[in-house]
Amino acid sequence: MRSPLIAGNWKMFKGVADAIAFAKEFRTLARDFTEIEVVIAPPFTAVHAVADALRNSGIATAGQDCYWEKDGAFTGAVSAVMLKEAGAELVILGHSERRRVFGDTDADVTRKVHAAYAAGLAPIACIGETLEEREGGRTLEVLDTQLKAAIDGVSTEQFATMVVAYEPVWAIGTGRHATPEQAQEAHAHIRGRLRAWLGGEPADHCQILYGGSVKPDNARAILQQPDVDGALVGGASLDPRGFYAIAEAAAR
Ligand code: 13P
Fold it and tell me: 5-251: which CATH architecture?
């Protein structure tokens, strides 16, 4: 009932030429995928080129963030409307690097989610605890707070297109991924909260992705967990063959 979704978050890697080369190679590799959804999130400067190179491939393009105003004097910012016009269909919001490096708060995430919906973009809302929070026994509480902000004021109809990504901060870029059991525990908790707050149907339909050091050799075990519906891949999404191998693990 939930198709697997594999998303690649390129972070601040790849210029336009490199991004186009990746898109061309990957769409050839992935031409036989039917039962899985694939999303690629390049840096802002390459969104248009990647969306263009992936046209009619079934592979969607996403932004990595957006600002909540449509336009205005906001130097350096990119709006959801602009992302949409450039060809994006989704936008990653609340990534821990946005929170930690750029100071994005839960309230900012709420505003951005609503801006995304207003522009016709599906949000990929990221939530996850730090190592300190995990060791302090506060994981579930942190997930609840961040998840609440992501769905604050969101209608059931809007929520139908939201993707939630569980990304434990201690697993991002560290090579130390969550065990399949740790991922399943967090994902089941998130789905349980969605069930309590929004109802059974929205919870059952929501794709919940795991992110944090997903690689071709560990993807399968994590993706086999019943509440893990896909992956949000950072480093391993930069190489078309590696990313394809992860997508293939989801397809099986
Ligand atoms: P890594 O796969 O490099 O750990 O990054 C995960 C991530 O932050 C995806 O959004």
Answer: Alpha-Beta Barrel (3.20)
